[in-house]
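Checked the freezer inventory, then went back to the computational side. Two predictions to log before the end of the day. The first one is the construct we discussed on Monday; recording sequence and tokens without edits.
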Amino acid sequence: MEQRIQVEYGWDYARRMAFRIVRDTNGVVIDRAALVGADLPLTPRESARVEWLVRTHPAIAPLLGASDVRIWSGGFVYRKPGDLHCDRGSRCVHAIVAADHGSREIAHAIVDLQSDRVVDPFYGALGAKGKEHAD
């Protein structure tokens, strides 16, 4: 028998993990599950927060003078076992700042929404703090 359901995925900031809720057509919860270790794309509100954190970071903000600068962050989740900031329970994502319609990278940061901060303003840059993920 076929049955229509509504499935909602999200991030529980209090529990530091992803979740799934399944509801029937009347909105009654059929199932609720913690998704330990799951990586979900960002919501529009989370993407906006990432952009604000990157645009206001003291090391990145001076690089954003061009009017055509864009920040991509929606689906680039970053988690690394043993990482100081981006291990289990984090909500780390890549944030790539680019100009010229995305053809010129200006900065590549790691933002942890769980701690609400840029944890590595210059990820992967030689001589930068990319390996330690420190402010």
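The second is the one RB wanted added to the comparison set:
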Amino acid sequence: MSKNFLRVKRDLLQEMADIPHHTQESWAEIMLKYSQFLTTEQDQQSFWNFILNPADDRDYKAPEFYKYDPLNVEIPEFQKMSIKSEEDEKMEELTLVNEEVRNGLTCYISTRVE
């Protein structure tokens, strides 16, 4: 484990201990506040292993982590969709246009009917 992860873990546990009772909101706020500092894959894996096994049980089996490769994700620019009404025998075919926009590690997909 890196020094960065150990520091984040220490701070996270300290903040959790300082609050006498938690709500879903306070728990989520603490998790999000400290997870932003885990920038390396190793730190993120250590974080999830800690969250899933906080008692550090020896029988714990760590999950398999897969490396995300955004270049291997293909979103077709054009798609066809058929719409058919149950009351009517007519069927209409629409062409959907997908536009992909990336902002850092976040991907937004805007879909519109052409």
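For RB: The first strand starts at residue 78 and ends at 84. The radius of gyration is 22 Å. Let me know if you want it refolded.
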